[in-house]
């Protein structure tokens, strides 16, 4: 029931915002407070789910709601979480809350805050639903709920190229969801159930090999668009760059995870034979993504665009982890998911603040010397950049390291030489990642200010900016220094995923 | 031999046939034209109520082969009011009520002869109602013609309009050719099995000697062609855009919803009841038709500049989705038929809604309204604008248009369950093309208009009621799509 409540709060609040302006929350300030309150309440419910969750049995779906929706079609309203989805649920609630907190003082250019708040809340409902749904149809419905709100957020509050970016975003992701739907239904119809826990329990028993391969391939492409997997990523740089700050944070922080989460939750367990047949291809595309993302980052001149391309690389590591089909690799993927959500969320918040102050995201026009002109902002940016490049001791390190480790010893059915090659190339990608983040820091935080007269106008970060940054910094440190906090939650269910005892 | 007729079972079509005569007579006695519309609406509603009452009761059949002549064969009834027929009759009648509401103003402004208009409409509805309940080939063909003939006249009713005359002629020619082809197919099927009743036909086809199988297959494909015309499937689609544009808008709505629903019902009846054992013949044919229809329809819809032509091509594309489940052949056929039925029912609501808004925006005697004419509609007329955007999102199949999403899900599910995964993949690609033009149109509704705000013609009470009714239906079905899904699954 707790997740029903968690989704009902933002959904009802979004509906309440349909009440005419004059009657309810007439000004932007009260509207902003309302948004903070609602998403804060959702976060609190999420945290209480954390306390209600029995960590000793993390591999079971807990706190479940399971109602018959339509018996003739075998539709069920089945929600619940296990150790795989719980961290993502909390991450979603946290990032939405931080976005609304940030928006309170730093509203996106373009006004219409009421619609913006409502859309973010609908988005939150959809994201939470995706991570808690345990029925394939329900999962798909929530997977699609996020599309229109995100489309509208990019279209209405985005940068100059927003129209093309929003259209590209929705067309790509819809193509992905069409293939995904076909793949999921193909496996589900052959297995005779739509229940995700049941599908995972059966490990593809009774589904012919050919069906599994087709089904996994379709799901891989479908989730791959969202993740994004090279070469299906081309929507991402545009969408991330054009979206307003809150939109970029949620896109990078949560929406991309829906793809990799889906692979771990639906595709791999329901079609394990298919996964083994396609793993090498997935691994190959993943490392190509890692190297491609890094090289593209080296060539970027725009801050947001660079962070967007870095996502392609980081999600490449996550996909590589999944492709190994080992507990180590999948744990790495889930870890990388959370780490990327925290760090890239932080990076996009910071990029938004940089853009607010300099009026541009262009690296050359920002110039250097930010440590001198805006020391606090620059310090946070440095922290986020080194966290993102995978400095040991911070969250980014573990996901990448474990993914490479998983690739060194992949599942017995996979070709070891291929995966060791992937590991080597992925390691090269990690070095390139360090290179472009250091280049970024050298360009804008160090060096001399472009024009010393600019220095005076740069305002110090506001309380609301700190409020958005500090929790992410703290969690990056926490997860980085004690990776066990997260690994302990995910390792049980991941082992269960591969047939071991949870 | 005197045959008993169960008048209760055939009440809905009889009511409509009576209504048609009453309206014609009333017009002859100079009853004001407004009243003719009200009268039509009243009769249609009465028939709808009758359908509801029948649905609550037990399954009724009539015009059965008398027991003396039956021999050892099945019961063979020509008219069956089962759940399938009643669901479609309800759908046809509800859609017809909306079409009449949309017509009230058009009949006035376009100066159409009100008596004839409503008479023809009711006659066509009678044909549709009989078609969905027909269970033998002769009744099916006669009902199909009863549905088609009045529509030619309806399309050409706008006098002194070359476009309308051309559209009517085009529709007539294509229709006659396809009927001839279909009759030839029927004669082949009758020739090889000696049966007209679908249950006998089905039994006969199962025990067919091997040397007659090619003839039966040819017959099956030719019969399919007749229905392919009715539902505007490629390659029998090319009449649709011109006819939709030339016809009065409510008639176009009738063609794209009522006529199409009846066509799909007929197709499902023929393949489901009549020739399931030939599934390996008509299954692949339908699969190819579906794939080509949706792809061509969507690609052409991308290029359209006016609302009516976009709706025409998109409704061709939607026909492709509706055909897709039937591509499974005999395996899992009942599930596939349920999927098609569900899709048709959900599509009827959203497409009628979109048509209703176009009727509201279109001014009489002007060029068909361009897509850019919808700019700023949400500001000028919040009800119609928001409703249109919602209908389009439903047609694209994305939340918040959950009904469209579920329509898509059932069709995908039927296709992959019947081992035509390649068709599901084609469909996936097509939903993307569809989304592009639906979304581009929906976005226009919210974009402020460049042109100076002109006083828009008030759409009038009846059109508003039609928009409100379809919008309410769409919202209810988006919250509880299981209402239609379970009804369809029960057929």
UniProtKB/TrEMBL annotation, chain A:
EC number: 1.6.5.-
Protein name, entry field: NADH-quinone oxidoreductase subunit M
Membrane topology: Multi-pass membrane protein
Keywords from the named record: Membrane, Oxidoreductase, Transmembrane, Transmembrane helix
Primary location: membrane
Transmembrane segments annotated in the record for this chain: 34-53, 84-104, 136-157, 169-189, 209-227, 248-268, 280-299, 306-326, 332-354, 375-398, 418-442, 463-482
Domain of life, per lineage: Bacteria
Compartments it resides in: Endomembrane system; Membrane
GO molecular function: NADH dehydrogenase (ubiquinone) activity; NADH dehydrogenase activity; ubiquinone binding
GO cellular component, one term: endomembrane system
Biological process per Gene Ontology, one example term: electron transport coupled proton transport
Species annotation: Actinomadura logoneensis
Domain NADH:quinone oxidoreductase/Mrp antiporter transmembrane, residue spans: 133-410
Family of the protein in this entry: Belongs to the complex I subunit 4 family.
TrEMBL record, chain B:
Main location group: membrane
Keyword Transmembrane: yes
GO cellular component, one term: plasma membrane
InterPro entries, alphabetized: NADH-Q_OxRdtase_suN/2, ND/Mrp_TM
E.C. designation(s): 7.1.1.-
Top-level EC class: translocase
Membrane spanning stretches: 6-26, 35-57, 84-104, 116-134, 140-157, 169-195, 215-239, 251-275, 281-301, 308-328, 340-361, 382-400, 420-440, 461-485
Pfam families from the UniProt entry: Proton_antipo_M
Reaction equations catalysed: a quinone + NADH + 5 H(+)(in) = a quinol + NAD(+) + 4 H(+)(out)
GO MF terms held by the record: NADH dehydrogenase (quinone) (non-electrogenic) activity; NADH dehydrogenase (ubiquinone) activity; quinone binding
Topology relative to the membrane: Multi-pass membrane protein
Gene Ontology biological-process annotations: ATP synthesis coupled electron transport
Limits of the NADH:quinone oxidoreductase/Mrp antiporter transmembrane domain: 134-433
UniProt keyword annotations, A-Z: Cell membrane, Membrane, NAD, Quinone, Translocase, Transmembrane, Transmembrane helix, Transport
Compartment annotation: Cell membrane; Endomembrane system; Membrane
Entry keyword Lyase: no
Role according to the record: NDH-1 shuttles electrons from NADH, via FMN and iron-sulfur (Fe-S) centers, to quinones in the respiratory chain. The immediate electron acceptor for the enzyme in this species is believed to be a menaquinone. Couples the redox reaction to proton translocation (for every two electrons transferred, four hydrogen ions are translocated across the cytoplasmic membrane), and thus conserves the redox energy in a proton gradient.
Subunit structure: NDH-1 is composed of 14 different subunits. Subunits NuoA, H, J, K, L, M, N constitute the membrane sector of the complex.
Family, per entry: Belongs to the complex I subunit 2 family.
Name used for this protein in its record: NADH-quinone oxidoreductase subunit N
Naturally occurring in which organism (per UniProt): Actinomadura logoneensis
Classification of source organism: Bacteria, Bacillati, Actinomycetota, Actinomycetes, Streptosporangiales
Gene name per UniProt: nuoN
């Amino acid at each position: 029931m707790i997740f029903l409540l968690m989704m009902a709060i933002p959904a009802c609040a979004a509906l309440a915002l349909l009440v005419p302006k004059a009657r309810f929350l007439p000004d932007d300030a009260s509207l902003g407070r309302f948004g903070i309150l609602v998403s804060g309440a959702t976060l609190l419910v999420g945290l209480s789910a954390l306390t209600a969750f029995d960590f000793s049995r993390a591999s079971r779906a807990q706190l479940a709601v399971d109602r018959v929706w339509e018996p003739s079609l075998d539709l069920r309203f089945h929600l619940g979480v296990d150790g795989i989805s719980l961290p993502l649920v909390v991450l979603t609630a946290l990032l939405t809350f931080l976005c609304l907190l940030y928006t309170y003082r730093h509203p996106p250019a373009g006004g219409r805050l009421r619609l913006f708040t409502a859309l973010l809340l609908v988005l939150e409902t959809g994201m939470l639903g995706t991570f808690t749904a345990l029925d394939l149809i329900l999962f798909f419905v929530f997977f699609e709920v996020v599309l229109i709100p995100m489309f509208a957020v990019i279209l209405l509050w985005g940068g100059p190229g927003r129209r093309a970016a929003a259209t590209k975003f929705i067309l790509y992701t819809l193509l992905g969801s069409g293939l995904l739907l076909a793949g999921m239904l193909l496996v589900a119809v052959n297995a005779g159930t739509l229940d995700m826990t049941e599908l995972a329990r059966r490990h593809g028993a009774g589904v012919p090999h050919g069906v599994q391969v087709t089904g996994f391939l379709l799901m891989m492409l479908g989730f791959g668009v969202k993740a994004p997997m090279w070469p299906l990523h081309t929507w991402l740089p545009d969408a991330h760059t054009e979206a307003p700050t809150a939109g970029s944070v949620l896109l990078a922080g949560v929406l991309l995870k829906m793809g990799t989460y889906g692979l771990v939750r639906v595709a791999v367990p329901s079609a394990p034979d298919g996964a083994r047949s396609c793993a090498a291809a997935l691994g190959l595309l993943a490392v190509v993504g890692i190297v491609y993302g890094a090289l593209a980052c080296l060539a970027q001149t725009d801050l947001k665009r660079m962070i967007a391309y870095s996502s392609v690389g980081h999600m490449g590591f996550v996909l590589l982890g999944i492709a190994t089909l080992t507990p180590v690799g999948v744990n790495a993927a889930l870890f990388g998911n959370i780490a990327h959500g925290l760090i890239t969320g932080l990076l996009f918040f910071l990029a938004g603040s940089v853009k607010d102050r300099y009026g541009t995201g262009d690296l050359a026009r920002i110039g250097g010397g930010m440590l001198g002109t805006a020391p606090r902002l620059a310090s946070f940016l440095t922290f986020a950049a080194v966290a993102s490049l995978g400095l040991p001791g911070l969250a980014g390190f573990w996901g990448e390291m474990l993914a490479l480790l998983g690739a060194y010893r992949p599942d017995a059915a996979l070709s070891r030489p291929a995966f060791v090659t992937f590991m080597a190339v992925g390691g090269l990608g990690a070095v390139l990642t360090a290179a472009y983040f250091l280049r970024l820091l050298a360009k804008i935080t160090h060096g001399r200010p472009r024009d010393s007269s600019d220095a005076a106008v740069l305002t110090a970060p506001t309380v609301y900016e700190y409020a958005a940054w500090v929790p992410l910094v703290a969690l990056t440190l926490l997860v980085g220094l004690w990776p066990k906090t997260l690994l302990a939650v995910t390792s049980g269910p991941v082992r269960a995923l591969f047939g071991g005892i949870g | 031999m005197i045959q008993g007729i169960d008048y209760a079972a055939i009440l809905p079509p009889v009511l409509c046939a009576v209504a048609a005569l009453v309206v014609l007579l009333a017009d002859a006695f100079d009853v004001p034209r407004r009243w003719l519309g009200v009268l039509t609406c009243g009769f249609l509603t009465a028939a709808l109520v009758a359908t509801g009452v029948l649905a609550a009761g037990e399954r009724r059949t009539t015009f059965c082969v008398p027991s003396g002549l039956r021999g050892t064969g099945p019961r063979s009834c020509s008219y069956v009011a089962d759940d399938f027929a009643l669901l479609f009759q309800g759908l046809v009648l509800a859609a017809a009520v909306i079409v009449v509401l949309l017509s009230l103003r058009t009949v006035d402004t376009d100066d159409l002869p009100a008596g004839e208009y409503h008479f023809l409409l009711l006659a066509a509805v009678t044909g549709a109602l009989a078609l969905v309940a027909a269970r033998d080939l002769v009744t099916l063909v006669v009902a199909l013609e009863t549905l088609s003939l009045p529509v030619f006249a309806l399309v050409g009713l706008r006098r002194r309009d070359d476009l309308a005359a051309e559209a009517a002629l085009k529709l007539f020619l294509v229709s006659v050719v396809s009927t001839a082809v279909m009759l030839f197919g029927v004669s082949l099927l009758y020739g090889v099995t000696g049966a007209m009743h679908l249950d006998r036909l089905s039994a006969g086809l199962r025990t067919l000697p091997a040397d007659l199988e090619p003839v039966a297959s040819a017959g099956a494909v030719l019969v399919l062609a007749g229905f392919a015309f009715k539902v505007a499937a490629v390659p029998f689609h090319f009449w649709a855009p011109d006819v939709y544009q030339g016809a009065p808008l409510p008639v176009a709505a009738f063609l794209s919803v009522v006529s199409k629903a009846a066509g799909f019902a007929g197709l499902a009846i023929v393949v489901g009841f009549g020739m399931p054992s030939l599934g390996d013949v008509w299954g692949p044919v339908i699969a190819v038709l579906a794939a080509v229809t949706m792809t061509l329809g969507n690609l052409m819809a991308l290029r359209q500049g006016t609302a009516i032509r976009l709706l025409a091509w998109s409704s061709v594309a939607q026909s492709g989705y509706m055909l897709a489940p039937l591509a499974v052949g005999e395996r899992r056929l009942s599930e596939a038929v349920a999927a098609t039925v569900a899709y048709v029912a959900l599509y009827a609501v959203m497409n009628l809604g979109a048509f209703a808004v176009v009727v509201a925006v279109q001014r009489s005697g002007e060029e068909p309204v361009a897509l850019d004419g919808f700019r700023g509609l949400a500001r000028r007329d919040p009800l119609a604008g928001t409703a249109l955007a919602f209908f389009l999102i439903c047609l694209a199949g994305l939340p918040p248009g959950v009904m469209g999403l579920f329509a898509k899900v059932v069709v995908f599910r039927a296709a992959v369950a019947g081992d035509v995964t390649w068709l599901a993949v084609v469909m996936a690609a097509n939903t993307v093309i569809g989304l592009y033009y639906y979304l581009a149109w929906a976005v226009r509704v919210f974009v402020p208009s460049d042109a100076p705000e002109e006083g828009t013609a008030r759409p009038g009470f009846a059109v508003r009621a039609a928009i409100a009714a379809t919008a309410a239906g769409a919202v209810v079905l988006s919250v509880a799509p299981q209402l239609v899904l379970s009804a369809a699954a029960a057929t």
